[in-house]
């Protein structure tokens, strides 16, 4: 392991033990038709006092490789669920999406753990959606078992970054997902690329045909939003709607963006 990675890992372990330097940002996912807030996605943030902000793309893979991911996932779930409760008290209606690493899904008791956390923190399981990236690290049959346990408990399951994995269709056919998130790479060139529009239209049709909700990620322009609306995409998320926000910014954001 490179010296910098070793240092990052040690510091992350310390941060997790103390709960210091870590926080969650929350990015709204809004309904394409009227802009109402439907869900917020929790995104982990880490600011180290000497290294400064470390992006999740730098430390999440390290945590996955070196045995820290379960601790990180639990910290994210606990923090996100507590925050959801706080918003609930303040009268903000939303569900919560949390990114879950494929590694954490390997534990058969993970669905029970999530259910216990929900119960302990007072969140109905059907207000929680887990975002999972494609790319199986385990046999499909085992993954199917774990995901089915989540669905029986009422937890929603989204395929994150749809279109970037290698076995998307097979997974969709066999696994009990409730939502597809179209990767940003298919959204970026939407106003100009006919091919991307065809792909997005097909994914929307596929999702709706299978009874799934569809979200487009990385929406940055009004032109993209207009096309996604026309193509029947259910939810949109991206800098055009909102950057990932600090927890305390969400209620003011939501009151400025009341359903039109
Ligand atoms: P992701 O789940 O696909 O999250 C979307 C990423 O795109 C986020 O980056 C978000 O800040 C960024 N984004 C949102 N809207 C826009 C937009 O309009 N344009 C552009 N260019 N980017 C946009 P972030 O927060 O740096 O997270 C990167 C990745 O790190 C996430 O990708 C996810 O895979 C992972 N990650 C983040 N938080 C967690 C976590 O709590 N647990 C796990 N396991 N992974 C996480
Ligand atoms: Ca995600
Ligand atoms: Ca994504
Ligand atoms: Ca991603």
UniProtKB/TrEMBL annotation:
Segments forming domain EAL: 5-258
PROSITE patterns, sorted: EAL
Superkingdom of this protein's organism: Bacteria
SMART domains in the record: EAL (SM00052)
A Pfam family: EAL
Protein name: EAL domain-containing protein
């Amino acid at each position: 392991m490179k010296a910098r990675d070793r240092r990052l890992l040690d510091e992350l372990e310390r941060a997790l033990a103390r709960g210091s330097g870590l926080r969650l940002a929350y990015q709204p996912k809004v309904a394409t038709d009227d802009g109402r807030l439907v869900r917020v996605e929790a995104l982990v943030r880490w600011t180290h006092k000497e290294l400064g902000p470390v992006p999740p793309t730098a430390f999440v893979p390290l945590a996955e490789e070196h045995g820290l991911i379960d601790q990180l996932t639990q910290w994210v779930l606990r923090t996100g669920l507590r925050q959801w409760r706080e918003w609930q008290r303040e009268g903000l209606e939303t569900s919560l999406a949390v990114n879950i690493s494929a590694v954490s899904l390997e534990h058969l008791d993970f669905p029970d753990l999530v259910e216990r956390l929900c119960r302990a923190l007072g969140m109905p399981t059907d207000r929680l959606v887990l975002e999972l990236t494609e790319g199986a690290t385990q046999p499909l049959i085992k993954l199917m078992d774990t995901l089915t346990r989540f669905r029986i408990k009422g937890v929603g399951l989204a395929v994150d970054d749809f279109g970037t994995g290698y076995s998307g269709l097979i997974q969709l056919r066999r696994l009990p997902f409730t939502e597809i998130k179209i990767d940003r790479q298919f959204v970026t060139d939407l106003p100009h690329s006919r091919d991307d529009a065809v792909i997005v239209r097909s994914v929307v049709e596929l999702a709706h045909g299978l009874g799934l909700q569809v979200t487009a990620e990385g929406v940055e322009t009004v032109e993209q939003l207009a096309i996604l609306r026309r193509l029947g995409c259910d939810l949109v998320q991206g800098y055009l709607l909102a950057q990932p926000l600090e927890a305390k910014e969400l209620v003011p954001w939501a009151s400025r963006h009341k359903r039109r």
